[in-house]
Amino acid sequence: VICSLAKRGDLGMELLETHNLLQMAGRAGRRGMDTQGACVISATAFEGPEDAITILTNEIKPVVSQFSPSYALAVNLIDRGG
Fold first, then answer.
1. Is it the case that residue 9 has pLDDT exceeding 90?
2. Mean pLDDT of 34-61
3. SS3 state of residue 76
4. Is 12 exposed, middle or buried (0-12, 13-18, 19+ CB in 10 A)?
5. Can you tell me the mean pLDDT for 20-42?
6. What is the DSSP letter of 9?
7. pLDDT exceeds cutoff 70 at 23
8. 39 and 25 Cβ atoms separated by less than 8 Å
9. Contact criterion met (CB below 8 Å) for 28 and 74
10. Do 57 and 50 form a contact (C-beta atoms < 8 A)?
11. DSSP 40-53
12. Nearest-5° angle of CA 44, CA 48, CA 54?
């Protein structure tokens, strides 16, 4: 159950971005046991159906990796036999 379509950001409360909502909804079900899950979005006094429709129909922004390998990572992997 998703109880709010907003989160606290740098500028105060902001509506979730599409990829954030899909990430949360994609975790529905029991890992390793269920092949499908259900997600329910509950309305609040501050967000209505129009907000949900906007979030769900917006374009999904591409994922940009924040991973950056380092010398220490390489040394640790070699040390572990990886």
1. no
2. 87
3. helix
4. exposed
5. 82
6. E
7. yes
8. yes
9. no
10. no
11. -B---SS--HHHHH
12. 130
Amino acid at 64: V
Supply 17's token pair: 């971005």
State the Cα–Cα distance between residues 78 and 82, nearest whole angstrom.
5
Q: Name 82's bridge partners.
A: none
Residues, the chain: 82
pLDDT score of 82:
58
Residue that is written with structure tokens 């979005």 in the block: 41
Residue 35, amino acid? T
Structure token pair of residue 18: 């599409």
Which two tokens mark 75?
A: 């040394």
Question: ∠ CA 58-29-39 to the nearest 5 degrees?
Answer: 35
